[in-house]
Design a protein that fits this description.
alpha/beta; two-stranded antiparallel sheet; 2 domains; 12 strands; Spore Coat Polysaccharide Biosynthesis Protein SpsA, Chain A; 8-stranded mixed sheet; 276 residues
Length: 276
């Protein structure tokens, strides 16, 4: 086994508004069971940071009985993308040596109940995330974050289009700034090593997309939801995204918000493949 100091690191960023202890504690237990522990089994070093609006000291102590937290950050933000940006900045500034160790950032939510182990291996060149809309690919409900009706999630205007979802993502370090930073200069594009050409995408992989700077014109579905903001930001940096399965449900929301999931989120069985 390699010494701890030589391990690649995955930095887990838990970002959201959730503050209820009866939600946070069980969700963090599943994060430990289905994300942190499997990563450690594969000899990754794992650091976990929790970014929320508020949290009591008692809740912190109860969480830390189940998962090691490198730091807690409490602050208010105007929207989910500013919140994620602020979390990323606070984490990287509080631990400057992180940039030399970290191989992936994993963005997740504090109200997310993981149902099974996160999927391996991680894609070394692409941001792994779910889709909100997708026009191609053999997918399941684990690949998609919105289920409004039969095949409704497959409705994108043009073949080869996708709108990404913002709930969860595995982000290789070269794409971290493009994913998290809302004010990043879009005039300079960065490609992970080995992905220099826009058309350099594996043939036959129907869930791998190279987003391009004209994505908003080519794929109108990319701007139908708030997540279109993230899609177009990644497209402005010509990022590679891989639509991937993540098996979780969301806890019932804070009262007065997200009425569409008041009873939690829907779970289908494993045999629910659809071809978009």
């Amino acid at each position: 086994m390699h010494p701890q100091k030589n391990k690649d690191e995955v930095s887990v960023l838990v970002i959201g508004r959730e503050h209820r202890e009866n939600v946070l504690v069980p969700c963090m237990k599943t994060l430990r069971q289905h994300v942190v522990a499997p990563l450690e089994t594969r000899e990754f070093r794992v650091s976990t940071y929790i970014c929320v609006e508020k949290m009591t000291e008692t809740t912190r102590k109860h969480i830390e009985q189940h998962i090691i937290v490198s730091d807690f950050f409490e602050y208010n933000s105007s929207d989910q993308f500013s919140r994620a940006h602020e979390c990323f900045e606070r984490v990287t500034q509080s631990s400057p040596e992180l940039s030399s160790r970290v191989k992936y950032f994993l963005k997740t939510r504090p109200d997310m109940m993981w149902l099974s182990d996160i999927t391996f291996p991680f894609h070394k060149d692409a941001v792994m995330l779910r889709a909100r809309r997708i026009s191609r690919g053999k997918v399941t409900s684990q690949h998609l974050s919105w289920q409004v009706g039969p095949r409704e999630e497959c409705k994108c205007a043009d073949a080869g289009c996708v709108m990404v979802d913002s709930m969860v993502a595995v982000i290789p370090k070269p794409w971290a700034d493009a994913y998290f930073k809302v004010d990043l200069d879009t005039t300079s594009k960065t490609f992970p090593r080995g992905r220099e050409r826009l058309d350099d995408v594996e043939k036959g992989d129907d869930k791998l997309f190279r987003l391009t700077s004209d994505w908003g014109d080519r794929c109108p579905c990319a701007v139908e939801w708030d997540e279109g903001t993230l899609t177009l930001r990644l497209a402005s940096h010509e990022a590679l995204v891989f639509i991937s399965p993540f098996n979780f449900v969301l806890a019932p929301p804070i009262p007065g918000s997200a009425a569409w999931r008041a009873g939690g989120t829907y779970v289908r069985d494993d045999d629910d493949w659809e071809t978009c």
